[in-house]
Design brief:
Blueprint (H helix, E strand, L loop, with lengths): L1 H17 L19 E6 L7 E2 L9 E9 L7 E11 L9 E10 L4 E2 L6 E8 H7 L12 E10 L4 E2 L6 H4 L10 E5 L2
Antiparallel strand pairs: 1-3, 2-3, 3-7, 4-5, 4-8, 6-7, 8-9, 8-10
Keywords: Signal
Protein name: Lipoprotein
Organism: Haliscomenobacter hydrossis (strain ATCC 27775 / DSM 1100 / LMG 10767 / O)
Length: 189
């Protein structure tokens, strides 16, 4: 029993000594940190409700949504907001796959100021026909369950670029706090 008490006492002493000293942790002052930028979905209520691409309704299929931008100055340091898109032919084992291309870029001159929040705001419409034309696809080449994959690129006025690959996971998909994904897909219905 005496050996057990000595063992416990020795472990307690080692633990106490090891926990007394704090390592010298690096610390950056807030003004020295790198500032990013993100988009927040204002409408519709969820990104899933922004729209669909329907094989039977090419002219009526579109994505429509409104975003505002957040950075250290309420989005005023965002230079552009762009979309890239690629196509995956899931029915024909990739026979008609299309590589990623730049779909559209909105410059800061197209942003407006939100009357309530004071943030920079943008209304976006992406039509199914616009995507088909860019990727040089016909409606006949696209089948139900084929997939369009979109990447969002936010560029700041200082030249910093933010996309899914260098953005925190909370902002990559639409379940994060801002509700707007940095990458998303639409399967053809």
């Amino acid at each position: 029993m005496k050996k057990f008490k000595l063992l416990i006492s020795g472990l307690a002493l080692c633990l106490a000594l090891a926990s007394c000293e704090d390592p010298n942790l690096p610390f950056q002052q807030f003004p020295e940190l790198a500032y990013g930028a993100v988009a927040r979905l204002l409408s519709p209520a969820t990104f899933a409700a922004a729209g669909t691409f329907k094989k039977a309704d090419v002219p009526g299929s579109k994505l429509v949504f409104t975003v505002d931008f957040y950075d250290e100055d309420k989005g005023k340091n965002v230079e552009s907001f762009a979309f890239l898109v690629k196509f995956t032919d899931r029915k024909n084992a990739g026979a008609n796959n299309k590589a990623e291309k730049a779909l559209v870029t909105y410059n800061s001159t197209q942003f407006t100021t939100h009357p309530k929040y004071g943030t920079q705001t943008l209304d976006v419409t992406i039509t199914y026909q616009q995507v088909l034309t860019l990727l040089e696809l016909t409606a006949e080449q696209v089948n139900v369950a084929d997939r369009f994959e979109f990447q969002v690129v936010i560029t700041k006025k200082d030249g910093k670029v933010f996309k899914a690959s260098n953005t925190s996971a909370e902002f990559v998909n639409s379940t994060g706090g801002f509700g707007f994904p940095m990458e998303f897909r639409r399967d053809v219905l």
